[in-house]
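TICKET: design request
STATUS: open
ATTACHED STRUCTURE:
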């Protein structure tokens, strides 16, 4: 799976190549140093070479050690550059992919899960990548090189460590086969914990208002404990790896010293060679430990890489196949013909069914209906936030799929049911509607949305910094800024999804009057719970259970629609 992600090394790929090359040089020097050391003992200290030979070869060994140290440091720097760049590019790729998702794609992944994939999973994958380009190159070369040198020093003693390899291989196989599912479950527990944290922080004011801190603390403790248990369950198997490796390493050293001392006593092995052989045994077993570490990290990262690839390989349900069409909206007309829609794609679970509706350009349409009647679903189809399951939708006289998404959505402004503002100033948030808008245009839109007065009353006016999600504004203030932002877009079609629910009736009436003047000639669709919000619309659509059950003016619907009349009478009683 890491191989599939290797393309994300991008401009940092050269560092991923330099690091292994430097490591190869470092390992070669490390392998030669014990051989030189054995020669110093046998030929310099104990042999005829004497002090001069010992000093000369000792100097050579010091130079080799210094060179190895420098190469290792450079390799570490290159690996860090490659690893951090690799992680940056993967995060960028994930974020770009999510931006291309349609609403239905986003529905398949929870927000908390996407956050975990962008953070924890990418970190795990980065660690595996760095370990691969460093230890993954170093360990095999050292294993082969040290084994070769050990056999050259003493073929008979080499049998000792060769006997340990099958034991280690069997242990790694058993650990790896059982660890992977445990780490997958651990990452799911991370998703659940992140979801709990996100929900709590987003709704912290509600938590405090209802004095539910202890309840939330207990809920978090439970999710955190679930992570702890899952992590312990996964890692208690992995930690067996180190004792097995150490047992094998120390067992081999003891066996080598036992049999080697006998060979020295027989005169068939020199002390220097035994010393070098022990060093090579240590290098061999350390390299095996490194390989086992790679194996462990690969198990963890494999689960993370699979989750990353799930997002990267997700196919957006809505494809922008008409990017080069050059088609733009000629007017704001809308026509649904035998339209149906299902969130799951199943024909027997339709959220909208047999929608036939024609809206003329410049017309103001109100939509009324109970919760779950399909009001929001209907208007989300117009800017292609979802695609129809069946039937046809024409906007501006053309099928919505004939437009590029940028062109279509650039001419359709939508104030969503949930008012979303971003960290930054009020001005920066307003410029989402039109990044080239002048200060005069910004102020004009805010006056239309009845937002100018409260904005200028703030200490820094339009340059007031907003907290995350505009938390330092009231619900009505956020709604008015969102309306102003949409007005700056100067759209052909304006969709207001219950966007004045948090303002008082007097302010709503001022907004409606200003919008009628500002949006003359713009097709306007208003979803509302209060009939007073839509009673003066050109036509009102009544929806129930995903179908249109009435269309007409306010007075016509009072005569023809039992649902509309019932809602109106209930709201009038509330006023009385």
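STATUS: resolved
RESOLUTION: sequence designed for all positions
ATTACHED SEQUENCE:
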């Amino acid at each position: 799976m890491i191989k599939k992600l290797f393309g994300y090394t991008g401009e940092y790929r050269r560092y991923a190549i330099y690091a292994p090359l430097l490591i190869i040089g470092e390992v070669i020097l490390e392998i030669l140093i014990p051989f030189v050391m054995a020669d110093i003992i046998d030929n310099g200290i104990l042999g005829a070479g004497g002090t001069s030979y010992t000093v000369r070869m000792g100097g050579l060994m010091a130079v080799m050690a210094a060179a190895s140290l420098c190469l290792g440091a450079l390799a570490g720097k290159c690996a860090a550059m490659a690893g951090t760049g690799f992680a940056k590019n993967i995060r960028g790729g994930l974020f770009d992919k999510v931006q291309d998702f349609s609403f239905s794609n986003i529905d398949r992944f929870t927000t908390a899960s996407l956050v975990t994939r962008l953070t924890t999973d990418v970190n795990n994958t980065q660690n595996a990548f760095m370990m691969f380009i460093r230890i993954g190159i170093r360990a095999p070369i050292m294993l082969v090189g040290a084994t070769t040198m050990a056999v050259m020093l003493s073929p008979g003693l080499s049998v000792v460590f060769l006997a340990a390899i099958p034991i280690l291989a069997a242990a790694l196989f058993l650990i790896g086969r059982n660890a992977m599912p445990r780490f997958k479950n651990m990452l799911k527990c991370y998703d659940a914990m992140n979801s709990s944290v996100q929900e709590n922080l987003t709704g912290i004011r509600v938590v405090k208002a209802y004095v539910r801190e202890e309840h939330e603390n207990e809920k978090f403790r439970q999710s955190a404990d679930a992570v702890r248990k899952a992590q312990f369950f996964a890692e208690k198997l992995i930690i067996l790896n180190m004792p097995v490796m150490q047992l094998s390493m120390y067992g081999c050293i003891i066996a080598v010293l036992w049999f080697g001392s006998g060979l020295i006593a027989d005169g068939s092995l020199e002390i220097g060679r035994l010393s070098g052989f022990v060093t090579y045994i240590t290098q061999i077993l350390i390299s095996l430990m490194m390989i086992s570490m790679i194996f462990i990290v690969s198990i963890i990262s494999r689960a993370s890489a699979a989750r990353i690839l799930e997002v990267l390989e997700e196919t957006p349900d809505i494809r922008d196949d008409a990017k080069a069409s050059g088609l733009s909206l000629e007017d704001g007309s809308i026509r649904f013909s035998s339209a149906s829609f299902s969130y799951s794609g199943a024909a027997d679970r339709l959220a909208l069914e047999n929608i036939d509706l024609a809206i003329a350009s410049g017309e103001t349409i109100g939509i009324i209906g109970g919760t779950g009647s399909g009001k929001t679903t209907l208007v989300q189809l117009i800017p292609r936030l979802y695609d129809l399951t069946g039937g046809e939708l024409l906007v501006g006289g053309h099928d919505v799929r004939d437009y590029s998404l940028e062109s279509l959505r650039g001419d359709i402004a939508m104030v969503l049911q949930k008012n979303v503002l971003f960290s930054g100033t009020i001005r920066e948030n307003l410029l989402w509607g039109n990044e080239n808008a002048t200060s005069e245009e910004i102020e004009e839109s805010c006056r239309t949305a009845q937002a100018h007065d409260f904005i200028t009353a703030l200490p820094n006016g339009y340059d007031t910094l907003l907290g995350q999600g505009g938390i330092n504004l009231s619900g009505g203030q956020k709604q008015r800024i969102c309306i102003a932002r949409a007005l700056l877009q100067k759209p052909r079609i304006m969709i207001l999804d219950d966007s004045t629910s948090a303002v008082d009736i007097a302010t709503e009436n001022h907004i409606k009057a200003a919008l009628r003047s500002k949006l003359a000639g713009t097709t306007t669709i208003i979803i509302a719970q209060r009939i007073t919000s839509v009673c003066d619309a050109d036509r009102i659509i009544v929806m129930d259970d995903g179908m249109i059950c009435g269309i007409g003016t306010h007075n016509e619907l009072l005569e023809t629609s039992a649902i509309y009349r019932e809602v109106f009478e209930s709201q009038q009683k509330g006023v009385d």
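CLOSING REMARK: The chain has a mean pLDDT of 83. The first helix runs from residue 2 to 5.
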